[in-house]
Amino acid sequence: MTPYSISKCIRTDKxxxxxxxxxxxxxxxxxxxxxxxxADFEVDKVNWDNKKKEPKDKVLANLLNKKKTELELFLNRxxxxxxxxxxxxxxxxxxGKKKIKPENKSLLEYYHDFMDRKQKEGVQLRTMLxxxxxxxxLKKFKPDLCISEINLTVIEEFEDHLxxxxxxxxxxxxxKHQNLRTVILDMLKHDIHIKNPYxxxxxxxxxxxxxxxxxxxxxxxxxxxxxxxxxxxxxKVLQMxxxxxxxxxxxSDVIELRWNHLDLENNLIIKEMRKTLNDVQAPIFTMARAxxxxxxxxxxxxGSEDLVFGKIGYPTINKTLIKLTEMAKIDKHITFHSSRHTxxxxxxxxGTSIYTIQKFLGHKSxxxxxxxxxxDLKIAKASVEKIDTFG
Length: 391
Prior knowledge:
The protein folds into 3 domains: 4-100, no CATH class; 107-200, DNA polymerase, domain 1 (Orthogonal Bundle); 215-379, Intergrase catalytic core (hpI Integrase, Chain A, Orthogonal Bundle). Helix content is 45%, strand content 11%. The protein is built from 14 helices and 8 strands. α8 packs antiparallel against α10 (286-295), α8 crosses α12 (338-349) and α13 (354-361) crosses α14.
């Protein structure tokens, strides 16, 4: 049982004179004694939720909860050091007499601030999604972990959690460890005094072979369209995935695809790629065209700035794809990115020039395209003028 309690309140007995707002306080009870300390925030009375004991404004509520978490860490650290929670000690939280060292703060709090900084720096959407996935995994693993508690044992326990509890494949575990290591290196760069446990930890090897669907498996996925409600999330995800299989666009480009990016007269998608910021001209083959026409509201949306597919989160898409592959009886663990490999591999199997595929995918280097296809280049044929892979 926690030896203290913290609640939030406003001092309605003394509004601030300069703007009529009320100061927000924390009410702390410890050792049968109660005291109040300022939270350093203020709020209009009408914007205070008496039932939830927090501001109605979500931004202010989040800031207040962040301050409450700092107070809890302060009190827990004092208890860990066998200090009695006296009124003076509690009030010292705001007086600056006892500050929390950076290494004693929450790992998740630092990680969240790290993501905020990276987003402001304009880091690519896919990278931000990967950081967020790792953040959520750490939250499930040890939500109260302090920075100072990070050591080799914790990293090994995190690896076991990912492997045996979350059932992550080696590639997924590898990426999460790389993300956490990046955050730890960022801490060291900002003079937070901890040891880097990854110096003594061997990262799990990612599976180098990229997954793709062969022609029969792609047909199985396509046949699911008649089994799903067209208004369901599963159907929307299926259409997005099939569309990417037919044109090779990344998730970040499909999710941002607008009708005015489409040139149906010349059967081209012309847009700036989110990952590289370079323009790409992706083909609109017959099957991709059929998907677009179905969504176009009898072509009324063509040329507009509306999104073609709408917003669906990457984690939701990949979870849905697992269900779809089970329905289709396909024994592969696919992600949305596998659609891009499917597109490239099926084209190369039909004899399309690798240089043509490079242009379709928007790769600067032919070496990048070869990495997509290295398992099937041996069966590539001579280039053909007409491509009829997708109709």
